[in-house]
Amino acid sequence: MDNIADFIVVGAGPVGLLTALGLARANASVIVLDADAQLNDSPRAMTYTDPTLVLMNRLGILDAAEKVAIRNREINFVWPQDDLVVTIDTLKAEPTRTYAHNLHFGQEALGQIAMDAFLTYPMTEVRFSTKVRAISHGTAHATVTVETPNGVRELRAKWVIGCDGGQSTIRKLLGLEFEGFTWPERFVATNVRYDFTGKGWKNVHMICSGPSWGLVAKINAEGLYRVTFPEDPDIPVEEVGRRIHDHYKRIMPDDEAYEIVSWAPYRVHERTCPTYNMGRVVLAGDAAHICNPCGGRGLTGGIMDVDRLVTAFENVLSGANERDELDAYTKDRRTEFVEVSSPFASMMKQMWERSDRDAQKRDQAEIMKLSVGSSSISLAGIKRRDAVA
Ligand SMILES: Cc1cc2nc3c(=O)[nH]c(=O)nc-3n(C[C@H](O)[C@H](O)[C@H](O)COP(=O)(O)OP(=O)(O)OC[C@H]3O[C@@H](n4cnc5c(N)ncnc54)[C@H](O)[C@@H]3O)c2cc1C
């Protein structure tokens, strides 16, 4: 049995590493475990909204994030059938924000920034290729059984925090249901090089056009963009790869060449578990709740967990009652997910994919209330391609 730490964080995703950083800053000893051999660098979340910037500032990593990010304030909602492009300003949409802008950069960069900062603190460690297989917990500590390249061993800590993603082993080992539903379609996230903003598009472009909806968003200053669109879940993955170009034909403003750098298909869900804490084990991020990414609430919700959970444990480390603190964490974060994040994400997804013309007109009227003008983008490309699709 290895020596006892204050915390074992299971999962070196962004939520696990930010949680670990917050706890290390509170002078705790923290070990992060991840089943993979290195940080995951597949194309995933890339928009950081106000609460996530507030947390990055609190954890001392906002400057590092600004160095790799672009700032964005304007978002285009596009209805190609009506030749309508409505530009909204994030501050006008959310006047109580701390930061007027969002940041855009790849989730893998956030993981690296958080890990680099975490490892500058004493009593911190990240162990890759270390997969949790079992967990037990009593009144004073929890023990995880891990599989490593050097064999199976046990590690002990006062608390274990499961940040091990949507398929969470920790959640399953606790016997918690993951209640909710899975959306019928698959999403395809692609990273592409093509100068959309050079063609007059904004940094975020939400194309609300029924089944051929799509998101186009600039990821970084080097001209990498995220293009996300829905796909039939029954099509084999190889076929999805081939069909990416069909979607691009529908959304590109012209026939100029583009380069697909990476892509990943994934299923989207609205699910959460009945509690986020049990005994000496706590859940955060996708392990506790998952929603579709259309409202930018996927990773944002996980980062809001980090903020709330670090506060709860700071209080515990200062002598507050741990049951009260962790129950309050569950109550606050689960209520926010069920009543705000998941409904908002579903509402946004439905708006993008709606075909009903009357409903589209109602959406347009709502979005117009937040409008700061119309852009100079030509919709000719999208409309022409829609007509031939
Ligand atoms: C293709 C794709 C695109 C996405 N796009 C967006 C988007 O545009 N916007 C958005 O907000 N969200 C998006 N998401 C969701 C977003 O990526 C997640 O919300 C985010 O990754 C959650 O972070 P996390 O740290 O909770 O979990 P994860 O990032 O999933 O990290 C979990 C970690 O736990 C490790 N792990 C798992 N099991 C074990 C175990 N038994 N032992 C040890 N380690 C373990 C894994 O190796 C992994 O590193 C996307 C997701 C995918 C898959």
What does this structure look like?
The structure is a single chain. With 389 residues, the protein is an alpha+beta fold. It has two domains: 5-69 and 105-178 and 273-350, 3-Layer(bba) Sandwich (FAD/NAD(P)-binding domain), CATH 3.50.50; 183-269 and 356-388, Alpha-Beta Plaits. Helix content is 35%, strand content 30%. It has helices at 14-25, 50-58, 62-68, 90-93, 107-118, 169-173, 237-251, 298-317, 322-353, 357-368, 380-388, and strands spanning 5-10, 30-33, 47-48, 70-72, 74-79, 84-89, 102-104, 124-127, 131-137, 142-148, 151-162, 179-193, 204-207, 214-218, 224-231, 259-272, 277-278, 281-283, 289-290, 371-373. The strands form three sheets. A nine-stranded mixed β-sheet has the order 19-16-12-15-14-13-5-6-20, sandwiched between helices. The termini are far apart. Flavin-adenine dinucleotide (FAD) is lined by residues 10-16, 33-36, 40, 44-46, 107, 131-132, 163-165, 169, 189, 264, 266, 285-286, 293, 296, 298-300, 302.
CATH uppermost class of the largest domain:
Alpha Beta
Identify the CATH homologous superfamily of the largest domain: FAD/NAD(P)-binding domain
The proportion of residues forming helix, as a percent range, comes to 25-40%
Largest sheet: 9 strands, mixed
Which outline best applies? Answer: globular
Cα-based radius of gyration, to the nearest Å: 22 Å
Q: How many strand units?
A: 20
Classification by helices and strands: alpha+beta
Beta percentage is: 25-35%
What value does the average pLDDT take?
92
**Contiguous helical run count:** 11
CATH architecture of the largest domain, by name, is 3-Layer(bba) Sandwich
Uncertain ranges? 383-389
Compute the number of structural domains: 2
Ligand inventory reads:
flavin-adenine dinucleotide
Keywords: Monooxygenase, Oxidoreductase
GO molecular function: monooxygenase activity
Protein name: FAD-dependent monooxygenase
